[in-house]
Amino acid sequence: MRPLWVVVLASFWIATICNVALWRALARLPDLTSGQAVTVSVALGLVIGLATAGLLSLLAWRWTLKPVIMLFCVSAAFGAYFMMAYGVVIDKAMMINTLQTDMRETRDLLNWRLLATVLVLAVLPCVLLWRQHIRLQNPTRQAVSNLAALLASCALLVVVLVLFFQSIASVMRNYPQVRYLINPLNSFYALGSVAARPFQRDESAILPLGEDATLGASYTAQTKPPLLLLVLGETGRSVNFGVNGYDRPTTPELSKENIASQRNAWSCGTSTAASVPCMFSHFGRANYESRPANYEGLMDVLQHAGLAVLWLDNQSGCKGVCDRVPHVDTSALKVPGLCDGGECFDEVMLQGLDARIAALPAERRAKGVVVVMHQMGSHGPAYFKRSPAAFKKFLPECTDNALQSCTQQGLVNAYDNSIVYTDHVLGSAIQWLKAQEPLASPALLYLADHGESLGENNLYLHGMPYSVAPDVQKHVPWITWLSPGFEQRSQITTACLQQQLEAPISHDNYFHSVLGLMNVQTRVYQPGLDIYAHCKPGTAAGRPASP
Fold it and tell me: What are the structural domains, with CATH classification, of the chain?
């Protein structure tokens, strides 16, 4: 077989069978008739096939043709499975999330459906290709043949685009998520975008931020230093928290506490890799991606102010925001009852916390302490693994990581059980903080990094492009608990906070609100973005920024 026919057959396979997720999405678009859906599908199939053929023609050489086609098939197989199984799309943010996935998260995604998909879409054609003898020409003739194939592909591609431009442009304009389903070109484009980041800004340099930070008047002659526990939640849907009006009792322990639960809070991104660095930065969502350089973040500013800071991580890392402060990974601990099955439940972060704080510099502890607990939370798709047996309140629950095979109720039950356990972790953290009151003025702030889709509109998990992501992937819980001692020193009362629970806020407010809670003064602090500032007597703060 000549290389040209190998390229044509591989391109046909990739453009048709490997793009089932795209054809399914087009068939479900509400504004397209069945005839229009067929027309757009044929046009896009030709575009994908010709674009793939053009790329493969460039690499149709003795030592590159088979490996490159195999790479295309494997990438297409994995992309097809995840787009079909979970309704996700593949863009730069999803690629970053994929590259930062650890082994525990990878295990949760493995199942026989993934294996079957890869076998059919990748292994089978790769075996056939590997056994096929390819009739190669001398280098000069092969170069001419490759160039001719490339020019022909480009010419036909232009013809198809001209003939079907209106149909394709209309779909892409009205449904931008469709472009992220073009498989596997979406993965290669996303990977290229990630690789190009060092050329957009110097990723190796971290510029200082808030080096002018000082502690405010509340620290003068204090007898009890502040102790702020920042619980960074994972995959928290605001609408599934009982304290936010959910019709199931998922937060019985928090319901007994005097808290303020903001019901209109929105995330910076739809994945951990996007949200965590953004929420701990001073840029805000609108400016974070276009930032001219990398800067230090919230943890650095708190440390510059002289406070003792500590990051505890029970998940896949802090995404760079804790690199310059003391941090501990608790996910690999071996605590009986809390660390079975290769991972630890979030309560493990409370184990030995007193000793971890005591190990911080004494002169900093005397001023105040800020501890971050990064949860495993409700990380999917194996929601059933996120709650111990004692907290499985809603049954039966889905115990399959192939979520499309679960009933909707079983899936929601498994997710809600993870929220019940998060409620217990937060309740236990508050009890631990209350025990510190003789020596400190404690407070707690819980905020999730992003939400989750649980099968609504055939979408699962998270990571959709922000502009098209459903609200459940962006609407997050924001819960504040203040001890009487912290209320007295900060002059911020829970009763005041409870008067504006419906105010629109977002991750943009987090950086400035934490600085405000801790009374850290610096030029980068913006009172107008501090959601607690309006409760300070004599403060004329503006309305918190809307998402």
Answer: 3-197 (no CATH), 229-535 (3.40.720.10)
